[in-house]
Amino acid sequence: MSAPLTAAEQALQALGVTEPAEIDLEVVALSLGAKVKYRSLKSCEARIVGQNGRAIITIDSAATPQRRRFSIGHELGHWHRHRGLCLKCRSADIGRTLSDGRRTPLTAELQADAYASDLLLPGYIFRPLAGDIDRLTLASVKSLASQFKTSLTATTIRALSTNRFPALLICHSHEGMRWFRRPPLIPDRWFPRSDLLPESPTFRMLFNGGSEPSRPTVVKASCWFDTPIAERFTVTEQAFGLPNNRIATIVELTDPKMLEM
């Protein structure tokens, strides 16, 4: 049984969108009564002003193409959920990533982020394409991200949400772990450790300026999980760089026994 369509997905289907290349956000915005403009913004990354069923969305022209697309989706989320308000969204407000299990109120910004994710990576298109992937590697994520014109982070998180891949996405800075995402199929016992060990290729990439690995690397599970039982297993890791000197790592649990415990 297919999942119910979200409001964003309904907007896409109303336009007959069936392929990633057909997701034209400016056309979607017009269908919802909003016009998108681009200009240099100093105090925010995006904003929306609306009245009487019409709105103007302004996006920072200096942002990357993927960031501009997500910002349009984010502002359309406000238009759907918070109509009547004048909202200015800073960079920190758009596309915020929270760790599993973290309790936080469902703010207007998080609601807008969820709408943007559904608009850029609609489940009824994304799930079949992700279903053709055997393993969640950086190569497979890049392939999906290229089709949907989305960031590696957003694409990986969306792939994990399908609950098909026994993997986590973990973000680190020099100060330690910043956030992680984990699908329901992975038991709670596999909670990422807060620090990175020198044996991990991600450690070398983050602290020594190492290059992005071309393929997943096998490491001890204890590099990623601070529990005695981790010594019995190995996992694979593959990292990619993020803004602000951060690194995100896809950690795959390759031993089925890790999912049974």
Task: Give the gist of this structure.
The chain is α+β, with helices and mostly antiparallel strands and 261 residues long. The chain is 32% helix and 21% strand. The chain contains 8 helices and 9 strands.
Helix content: 25-40%
Q: CATH class of the largest domain, please? A: Alpha Beta
Tally the beta strands. Answer: 9
Which structural class matches the secondary elements? alpha+beta
CATH fold-level label of the largest domain = Beta-Lactamase
The CATH architecture name of the largest domain reads: 2-Layer Sandwich
User: What string, H for helix and E for strand, traces the elements in order?
Assistant: HHEEEHEHHHHEEHEEE
Query: What strand line-up does the widest sheet have?
Result: 6-5-9-8-7
Q: What is the terminal-to-terminal distance?
A: 29 Å
Structural domains: how many: 2
Ranges where pLDDT stays below 50 over 5 or more residues in a row are none
What is Rg?
Answer: 19 Å
Strand content: 15-25%
Provide a count of the helices.
Answer: 8
Mean pLDDT across residues: 90
Shape from CA axes?
A: globular
Main beta sheet: strand number and arrangement? 5 strands, antiparallel
Produce the secondary structure layout.
Layout: H1 7-14, H2 25-31, E1 34-39, E2 46-51, E3 54-60, H3 65-81, E4 87-89, H4 108-120, H5 123-131, H6 138-148, H7 152-161, E5 167-173, E6 176-181, H8 201-208, E7 217-220, E8 234-242, E9 246-252
Parallel strand pairs: 1-3
Antiparallel strand pairs: 2-3, 2-4, 5-6, 5-9, 7-8, 8-9
Helix pairs in contact: 1-4, 3-4, 6-7
Domain IrrE N-terminal-like: 26-158
Protein name: IrrE N-terminal-like domain-containing protein
Organism: Sphingomonas hengshuiensis
